Structure to design on (754 residues):
């Protein structure tokens, strides 16, 4: 379940006056009320009129709480500051001038200018699957070519210098790429070819997952043969081995001793050139699951090789090392194997292994390579899943494994997977799935680690609410993190046996919603995130059902919405059915609560509240309620929207932009409404048909963000302009800080301006 919560910290009331005025006379009266918003290379300011004021003085400061210098004077009650430096926060105050005497200053607000052309990937955490380097001498191209594949669907990155990368979409997932016989060949959900690494064509589709591919030129030097070898899974009682002479037509091969449906993850190919006969021979080695290793000298006849006698290893990565004439295989569970081969006798030697120190199953090997150091000593290096690199410091497992320079100065205890981001005051927070809390005070330019995963903790960050500097992070099962200064977080437990949780801003403090094992709604409320008041609200699922038809409530499904009157609107799901109920909870801790259940005929996919009315979008209808209990079918969705999502999948993304409301959908489509009831037919805003995950207002622009680098901007809601932010990761959450816009995705992708 995805939870999106964004707290915008654009306006801060500070007040203050440093004595700068038109005269030294006392203030002539109270100042205006000032508001500000960021703009495209401009800061927009507007304020309430002051009786008797003929002009207004505008002050700007680089420091919060300081009035700064006067930047302009205006007779109107609004002004645009076009002298800003984009992405630099400024603090503004305004005074009225009455008969030459200034009033007291207004409240102090912050704003900034921005543009949509300057972006920086603070941490490009796209989950990369493989890197291939093809020099000019190999491809015959004008420049070297680098190709990176990603575990993200159909994402490829290409470069001609290794520094500047271009993202492209191949229309099917690609797990690994190689080059041979005049073309790039990629494997994933099929077999693809490309002349340049950028434009890809599906050569052959397959229902299996293909994970790795290699290429070899063999035979007589005067008339060489070409062979592509791919490894993956199989669903038709044969091994997951595929070969092709040209990368276009593929034949499935078998390794009989490996068993039915053997699955392979890695391909490594050793070659040997006979100087006398001028013939190249090869040995291809495939590493797979359950300790399976198969080898072949022709790509057609495959034999199982004994490597792991326990049959428990999972050889996800391997590398052929011509210097030691060995294939090194990295077991996912922390072992490194060396399999030597003798071309003279055409036999394998006995496999040797070493174990990752202090690893066990806690960390796994994600990558492997070989290299020579300055003293020409051969090394094998493996990457651990926490980012640490281990090295053999020699050419055999007997050398052992020792850590070398880690990827991070202080590696996190667990891989960082960003669940959500939020801003409070001038700070930006990134919350990892494994309890990590990272904080930035410069708009995402740098992060400090406030909390890391201690290990063995069953909790994870699920949702967050920030009010000024007070922050509550829901960790599930009744556990929370709380902070009153935005820097120090304290763990607390406010309940037990509470599996499904949401934390929301209820207008006067914090509310946490749980569904307990007895199918009751548990509500915890607090004004200060320290003292919590608990109320249990009984819920009867499917009141029209008989007792033996009723299912226990599984948890909060469609989200939690709080209205301006302090009421809660919750969508719950049953544990064993697709029916969802809407539970309206109204009241306060002082006056008590009432609850009721409405069972509509279709599933709630989106909930929101506006102007005292609750809204629920179903599969094909819009329902409204004024109390959260009694629902009325207000409208039928257009046919194009009705059949868009089945009732069992993720919700529509709803965003209220004031005069217009938006639903973000799959395939790059949106629907708009002026009132939340009447919705338009589908409008495609992204020709690449990427999923819209959310919207956020950045000053003059409405930004849509989503899957595979989807980032679009509009100023009128009709024309959407693509934004190239330099990455192609998925954006799941966004926040506006006092520096600019920050987006994040599940693989610590953070893109910010500047």
């Amino acid at each position: 379940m995805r939870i999106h919560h964004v707290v915008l910290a654009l306006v801060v009331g500070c007040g203050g006056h440093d004595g700068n005025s038109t005269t030294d006379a006392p203030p002539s009266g109270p100042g205006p009320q000032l508001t500000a918003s960021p703009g495209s290379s401009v800061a927009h300011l507007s304020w309430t009129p002051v009786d008797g004021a003929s002009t207004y003085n505008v002050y700007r400061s680089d420091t919060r709480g300081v009035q700064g210098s006067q930047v302009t004077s205006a007779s109107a009650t609004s002004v645009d500051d076009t002298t800003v430096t984009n992405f630099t926060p400024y603090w503004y105050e305004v005074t009225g001038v009455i008969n030459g005497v200034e009033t007291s200053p207004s409240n102090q607000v912050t704003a900034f200018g921005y543009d949509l052309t300057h972006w920086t990937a603070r941490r490009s955490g796209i989950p990369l699957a493989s890197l291939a380097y093809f020099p000019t001498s190999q491809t015959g191209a004008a420049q070297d070519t680098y190709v990176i594949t990603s575990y993200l669907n159909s994402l490829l990155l290409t470069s001609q210098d290794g520094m500047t990368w271009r993202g492209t979409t191949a229309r099917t997932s690609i797990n690994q790429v190689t080059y041979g016989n005049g073309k790039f060949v990629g494997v994933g959900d099929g077999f693809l070819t490309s002349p340049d690494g950028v434009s890809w064509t599906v050569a052959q589709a397959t229902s299996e997952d293909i994970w790795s591919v290699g290429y070899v030129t063999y035979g007589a030097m005067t008339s060489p043969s070409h062979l592509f070898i791919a490894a993956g899974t199989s669903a038709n009682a044969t091994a997951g081995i595929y070969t092709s002479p040209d990368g276009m037509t593929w034949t499935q091969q078998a390794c009989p001793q490996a068993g039915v449906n053997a699955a392979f993850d890695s391909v490594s190919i050793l070659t040997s050139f006979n100087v006398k006969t001028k013939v190249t021979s090869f040995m291809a080695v495939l590493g797979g699951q359950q300790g399976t290793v198969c080898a072949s000298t022709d790509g057609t006849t495959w034999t199982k090789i004994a490597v792991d006698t326990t049959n428990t290893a999972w050889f996800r990565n391997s590398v052929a090392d011509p210097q030691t004439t060995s294939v090194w295989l990295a077991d996912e569970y922390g072992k490194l194997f060396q399999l030597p081969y003798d071309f003279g006798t055409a036999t394998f030697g006995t496999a040797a292994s070493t174990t990752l120190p202090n690893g066990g199953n806690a960390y796994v090997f994600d990558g492997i390579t070989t290299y020579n150091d300055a003293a020409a000593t051969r090394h094998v290096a493996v990457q651990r899943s926490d980012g640490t690199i281990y090295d053999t410091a020699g050419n055999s497992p007997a050398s052992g494994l020792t850590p070398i320079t880690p990827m991070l100065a202080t590696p996190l205890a667990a891989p960082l997977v960003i669940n959500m981001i939020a801003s409070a005051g001038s700070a930006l927070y990134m919350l990892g799935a494994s309890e990590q809390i990272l904080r930035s005070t410069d708009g995402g330019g740098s992060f400090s680690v406030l909390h890391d995963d201690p290990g063995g903790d069953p909790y994870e960050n699920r949702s967050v609410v920030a009010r000024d500097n007070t922050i509550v992070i829901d960790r599930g099962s009744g556990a929370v993190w709380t902070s009153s200064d935005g820097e120090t977080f304290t763990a607390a437990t406010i309940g037990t046996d509470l599996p499904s949780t949401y934390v929301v801003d209820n207008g006067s403090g914090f509310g946490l919603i749980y569904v307990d094992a007895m199918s009751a709604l548990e509500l915890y409320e607090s004004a200060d995130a320290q003292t919590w008041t608990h109320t249990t609200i009984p819920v009867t699922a499917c009141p029209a059902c008989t007792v033996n038809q009723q299912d226990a409530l599984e948890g909060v499904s469609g989200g939690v919405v709080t209205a301006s009157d302090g009421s809660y609107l919750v969508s719950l799901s049953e544990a064993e059915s697709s029916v969802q109920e809407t539970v309206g909870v109204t009241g306060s801790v002082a006056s008590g609560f009432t609850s009721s259940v409405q069972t509509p005929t279709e599933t709630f996919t989106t909930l929101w509240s506006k102007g005292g009315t609750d809204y629920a979008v179903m599969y094909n209808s819009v329902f409204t309620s004024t109390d959260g209990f009694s629902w009325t079918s207000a409208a039928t969705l257009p046919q194009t929207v009705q059949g868009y999502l089945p009732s069992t999948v993720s919700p529509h993304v709803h965003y209220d932009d004031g005069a217009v409301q938006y639903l973000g959908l799959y395939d790059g489509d949106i629907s708009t409404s002026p009132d939340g009831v009447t919705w338009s037919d589908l409008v495609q805003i992204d020709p690449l048909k990427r999923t819209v995950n959310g919207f956020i207002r950045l000053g003059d622009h409405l930004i849509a963000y989503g899957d595979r680098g989807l980032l679009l901007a509009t100023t009128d809601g009709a024309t959407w302009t693509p934004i190239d932010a330099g990455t192609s990761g998925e954006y799941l959450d966004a926040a506006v800080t006092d520096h600019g816009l920050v987006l994040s995705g599940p693989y610590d992708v953070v893109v910010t301006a500047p």
Summary: The mean pLDDT is 75. The helical segments are 136-139, 639-642. Residues 136-139 form the longest helix (4 residues).
